[in-house]
Structure to design on (317 residues):
């Protein structure tokens, strides 16, 4: 499966897990429903012409609504990134002054979706994180030449691709609400894919994630008539996700090793056993393919991570 990559970056992006998620997902007649859209990578690869997509992060939803309405286009993005990239490359303090300028203008309430993409692509380690007042608070990646022509082409191509996939309203509807308002919209013909912030792990998206949130999610998924898939973590080398026993064990579970390349916290940048939990028959898929990761690959990943940590220590502000 060739995975379509969205123009937004974020920690926790499911790019590598999309083929697995889609292998598990049954085909349904109704809508693809994603209450925790994030970058949108799963929705864009779902193949559904009817979708209900939601995130509490207003910048994500604003951006994709703009793309849907053809207000945000690939040529406009190209012009914008060429202009801002040029200023960045010449700005004082190795570009940092301009990164700060864009971040300040975004946080002062302009919230331009173009600046959102600039920050997403020029921020440190592909992270997306907001402070308590909703302000973007990721430092600069420290690459003044971040927006080289090839990189701009890559981003604008990604935008052009997703703009062809996103269907006009009402076939694809975007919401900026809580998952609590979205899951009850599902009918028995729909499929819900949930990828909430992971409980018990360092979560740094637009909102946090509490045990109460996990409990509410369980209540809603437990009573939905739709089919659902929930992404969560099962365990890592040190601990287990206690929510599996508390809530999710009554459903079907498949697991897989996964390595997260980005994240603000060291534990988040290690191999984790991912779980997909579902309320339908999953006989067609391997139950547990974790442990199949070759030892050599694990060692390579550890070396990669050590190098990353080393460069992080040198680059962080
Ligand atoms: C793990 S990320 C989703 C990642 C996505 N599957 C991807 O591959 O890019 C979780 C998302 O849930 C959103 N979120 C957090 N709390 C939420 C809530 N209460 N209701 C809806 N969305 C929420 C965050 O803003 C974040 O974008």
């Amino acid at each position: 499966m060739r995975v379509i990559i969205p123009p937004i970056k974020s920690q926790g992006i499911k790019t590598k897990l999309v083929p697995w998620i889609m292998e598990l997902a049954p085909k349904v007649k109704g809508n693809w429903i994603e209450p925790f859209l994030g970058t949108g990578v799963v929705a864009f690869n779902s193949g559904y012409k009817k979708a209900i997509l939601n995130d509490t992060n207003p910048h994500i939803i604003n951006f994709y609504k703009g793309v849907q309405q053809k207000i945000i286009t690939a040529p406009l993005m190209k012009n914008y990134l060429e202009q801002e990239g040029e200023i960045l490359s010449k700005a004082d303090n190795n570009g940092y002054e301009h990164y700060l300028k864009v971040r300040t203008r975004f946080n002062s309430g302009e919230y331009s979706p173009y600046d959102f993409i600039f920050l997403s692509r020029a921020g440190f380690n592909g992270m997306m994180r907001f402070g308590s007042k909703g302000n973007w608070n990721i430092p600069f990646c420290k690459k003044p030449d971040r927006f080289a022509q090839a990189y701009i082409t890559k981003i604008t191509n990604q935008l052009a691709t997703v703009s062809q996939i996103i269907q006009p309203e009402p076939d694809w509807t975007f919401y900026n609400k809580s998952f609590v308002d979205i899951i009850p919209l599902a009918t028995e013909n729909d499929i819900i894919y949930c990828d909430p912030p992971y409980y018990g792990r360092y979560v740094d998206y637009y909102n946090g994630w509490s045990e109460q949130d996990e409990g509410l999610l369980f209540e809603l998924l437990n009573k939905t008539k739709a089919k659902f898939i929930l992404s969560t973590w099962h365990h890592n080398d040190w601990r287990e996700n206690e929510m599996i026993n508390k809530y999710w064990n009554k459903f079907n579970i498949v697991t897989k090793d996964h390595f997260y390349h980005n994240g603000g916290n060291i534990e988040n940048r290690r191999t984790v056993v991912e779980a997909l939990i579902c309320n339908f028959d999953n006989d067609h898929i391997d139950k547990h393919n974790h442990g199949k990761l070759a030892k050599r690959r694990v060692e390579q990943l550890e070396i990669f991570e050590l190098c990353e940590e080393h460069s992080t220590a040198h680059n962080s502000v």
